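Our consortium's second objective concerns turning raw sequence data into structural hypotheses that experimental partners can test. To show how far this objective has progressed, the report includes one record in full. It was chosen at random from the queue rather than selected for favorable results. The single chain below, 277 residues long, was entered without modification.
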Amino acid sequence: MELLQDYIIYILLGLGIAVLVLFSLCIILFDKIKKQKKKYDFFMGANRRPSHNLEMKIEEYYQTSKEIEEKYAKLLDMVTDMDKTMKSNIQKVGMVRYNPFEEMGGNLCFALALLDGEDNGVVLNGIHSRTGSFTYAKPIQMGVSIYMLSEEEIKAVQMAKDHAYQPVHEKVIKVKFKPTFRRKDKEPVMEEQIQLDITQDEASKETSKETSKEPSEAIGDVTSAEKEQILQEELMASLIAAVEIKNEETEKTEGKKEDHNIQRAPIYIEKKLEEEE
C-alpha cells in the first residue's frame, strides 16, 4: 500500500496521458469518418435531386433493363411468328417471255411462276394471239405440278427457285442467362463462364474465317466438301480399275507370247534334226 501511495501520482499521470491520447485519436477518427460520410453521400447522391442520386439511378436502370428484356422477348416472339407467316407468302418469282407464233413478234406471251418458301404456288401462262388473249393457271406443290407443264412454264418455275431469298443472318434463338454458383463456398463462377463463352466465340470466328476462305455451298443434301471427297474416291476407283485392266492386258499378251513360243518349239526342233542329219 505504501508503494502504491508513493507511485499513485505517476500512475494517474500516465493514465491521464493515455486517456488524452485515446481521446485525440477518437476525435481524429470521427473527423475522418465524417469526411468519408460526406464523400459517400456526395457519391451516392443522398439528399440531392433524383438525377444525381446514384441509388435511384441504379434502381431506374434495373427497371429499364427488365422492361427492355420483356420487350426483347416479345420482339423475338413476333419475329418467329413473322418467319412462320413469311414462308406461306410469295417469295419466289420467275417470268419467261416467249413467242409461240411465227407470224407475230414482240414476245407478248409469258409464263409467270409465283411460289412461296416451300415451293408451293401457281404458274400462269398468258398466250396472246390475233384472235384474243388467254391466261391459264396451273397449281404447283413442292415445285411440281400435277398437270403437264410446257417448256416455258418449267423454265419459269426453275427461275423462281433459283431466285429464292437466302437469309444473311442465322436464326435468333432466345437464351436466358443463368449465373451459376458453387454450393460450398458460394463463390460465383461467372469468370469461368465468360472465358468459356470467349473461347467458343473465338472458335466460331476461326471456323467462319476458314469457311469464308473456302466456301462450302450446299448442293442439294451434299456440301461441296463432301462432293470433292466423292470425286476423289471416284478418281481413285477409276485409277484402280485402269491398273487392273492394264494388268489383265499384260497377262493376256504374255500368255499369247508363251503360246506362240510353244507353237514354234516343234518347228525349231525339226530344223535342228535336219541340220544334224
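The partners drew two points from this record. Residues 224-276 form the longest helix (53 residues). Residues 2 and 8 are 10 Å apart (CA to CA). Both points have been shared with the crystallography group to help prioritize constructs.
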